[in-house]
């Protein structure tokens, strides 16, 4: 039995019309299966959005609320983080507009019990809540935030926040953000947790 000068058997030869056909099919399958990996975007580049609600009925000072919802969206444009937020609520009286008169801050809780982390998502001075008819406010909060003012180790008064340095905040962001709860903090220190 003589050995052929071509070390590749004829049935594996790419000059073969059949093998060229199978090779094309293989390439298409390989590209299709790997496309999610090859073309996946960094999670920090994608908008992260959702909403959290407190729906068991709450009283914030004299404002009686049946359900309160905070919507949020986190994005990144030109290397800078952007935070959007909005509020909708339903008053116990359909004509109620009492939430617009209250002062509060909103925080997205993105940490754990042992490592608390928060993103300040605006305040009543920046988010104009609509009437108590469970429709989104007409003036949502939208802000580009510097990395060194993005993620804090605590929540509460805006001037008492302990922020992570810019490099650490960016690393936390790039690792992927998961919003677990939203905390609404009133001017007199009451905290309402929306899940």
Structure description:
The chain has helices spanning 17-38, 166-174, and strands spanning 48-54, 58-60, 63-77, 80-91, 104-109, 118-123, 141-144, 151-152, 181-186, 191-194. The protein is α+β, with helices and mostly antiparallel strands. The chain folds into two domains: 1-40, no CATH class; 43-194, no CATH class. Strands 1, 2, 3, 4 and 7 form a five-stranded antiparallel β-sheet that branches. The chain has a five-stranded antiparallel β-sheet with strand order 8-6-5-9-10, with no helix packed on it. Strand 3 (63-77) and strand 4 form a beta hairpin. 23% of the residues are buried. Residues 1-14 and 30-41 have low confidence and may be disordered.
**Beta strands, count:** 10
Helix run count:
2
Element string (H = helix, E = strand): HEEEEEEEEHEE
User: Are there runs of 5+ residues with pLDDT below 50, and where?
Assistant: 1-14, 30-41
Name the helicity range: 10-25%
How many angstroms does the end-to-end distance come to? Answer: 77 Å
Q: Look at the helices and sheets and give the structural class.
A: alpha+beta
| Mean pLDDT figure | 79
Task: Tell me the β content.
Answer: 25-35%
Q: Major beta sheet, specifics?
A: 5 strands, antiparallel
Q: Taking Cα atoms only, what radius of gyration do you get, to the nearest Å?
A: 27 Å
Number of spatially distinct domains: 2
The general outline is: globular
Features:
alpha+beta, single chain, 2 helices, 5-stranded antiparallel beta sheet, 195 residues
Any chance you could write out the topology, listing elements then pairs?
Elements: H1 17-38, E1 48-54, E2 58-60, E3 63-77, E4 80-91, E5 104-109, E6 118-123, E7 141-144, E8 151-152, H2 166-174, E9 181-186, E10 191-194
Antiparallel strand pairs: 1-3, 2-3, 3-4, 4-7, 5-6, 5-9, 6-8, 9-10
């Amino acid at each position: 039995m003589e050995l052929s000068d071509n070390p590749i058997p004829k049935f594996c030869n790419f000059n073969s019309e059949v093998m060229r056909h199978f090779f094309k099919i293989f390439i298409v399958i390989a590209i299709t299966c790997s496309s999610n990996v090859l073309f996946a975007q960094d999670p920090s580049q994608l908008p992260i959005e959702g909403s959290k609600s407190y729906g068991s009925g709450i009283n914030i000072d004299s404002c009686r609320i049946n359900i309160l919802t905070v919507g949020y969206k986190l994005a990144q444009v030109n290397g800078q983080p952007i935070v959007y937020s909005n509020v909708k609520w339903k008053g116990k009286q359909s004509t109620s507009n009492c939430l617009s008169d209250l002062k509060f801050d909103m925080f997205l809780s993105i940490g754990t019990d042992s490592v608390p982390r928060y993103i300040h998502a605006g305040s009543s001075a920046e988010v104009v809540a609509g009437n108590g008819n469970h429709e989104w406010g007409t003036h949502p909060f939208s802000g580009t935030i510097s990395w060194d003012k993005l993620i804090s180790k605590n929540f509460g008064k805006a001037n008492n926040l302990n922020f992570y340095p810019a490099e650490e905040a960016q690393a936390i962001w790039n690792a992927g953000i998961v919003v677990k709860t939203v905390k609404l903090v009133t001017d007199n220190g009451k905290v309402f947790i929306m899940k």
